[in-house]
Amino acid sequence: RDKLPEYNTFKDAVELFRKSKNILILTGAGVSVACGIPDFRSKNGIYARLHKDFPELPDPSSMFDIDFFKKNPAPFYNFAREIFPGQFTPSLSHMFIKFLEESGKLLRNYTQNIDTLEKIAGIQKVIECHGSFSKSTCLSCKNEVDSEEIREDVLAQKISYCKKCKTGIMKPNIVFFGEDLGDDFHEQISEDIDKVDLLVVIGSSLKVQPVALIPFNIDPDVPQILINRELLPHYQSDIKLLGNCDDIILALSMAIGGEIKDEMVQELHKRVITTSNLET
Ligand code: OAD
Q1: 134: which of 2, 155, 172, 201 lies 20 to 30 Å off by Cα?
Q2: Rounded to the nearest whole angstrom, what is the distance from the C-alpha of residue 164 to the centroid of ligand 1?
Q3: Which amino acids does the record list as binding Zn(2+) (predicted)?
């Protein structure tokens, strides 16, 4: 993909956010790191730790491999409580996406994350490409329940069995390696791909397909921005903004101005703890 000559700088990024009306935001684990959820592939990420804690795993990502899970769900259940929803608050990056949506600029947020923080932030135009923890299904009888029903087992690090058939293993509705992404992903992306006027990748290594292919499948004249801690050697966006995504998003919001800036300032105010709102 040839670089679009006119877009390179932070200022260009601000202009693009101001003028675009159909922004596609592709997010990965990096947007939830500030919330306390580690990413997968960084030095201190989930895979590095799994490698140490579960040497029996053929590969750290086997924990999310459907064939491995069917044979041995214990490592997944040992680990799942760390990322189980209900313990985390959306980051400034999630809130920025919500504010883009409110100002009519968001085409769609494609998230690879399973932490449900987009929905908690109130984003409606979101596709959870890799599913989420919100529901769980019995591998044997296919009984589907709200994941609140497996919370106790997850928090106790116990394998959760189906309350209906009693023997089947419960699996959160996350897309494991070896499983297809849902129809909602395939249908929505084929509709959105021709509408997008700005693509923004935030906090992803773009290593897992098919989501990682999205930037390569849109019209090469559509500008692309990467907001990430590191460069991605296999992906050339027009603009690269490197650092912690919340810092970059905050700087962008202030520079974009208007509603987005006002909303972000209000969000920051909500996050300030003063002695008057501390519980005594
Ligand atoms: P990765 O862990 O592969 O990549 C996270 C990216 O975010 C890396 O490039 C980090 O440098 C960057 N990053 C980390 N913290 C950041 C921060 N505060 N600000 C900006 N960037 C930051 O995670 P994903 O790309 O999301 O699948 O991984 C894709 C899929 O692989 C996941 O959805 C998961 C995994 O296997 C399932 O859970 C099914």
Answers
A1: 201
A2: 36
A3: 138, 141, 162, 165
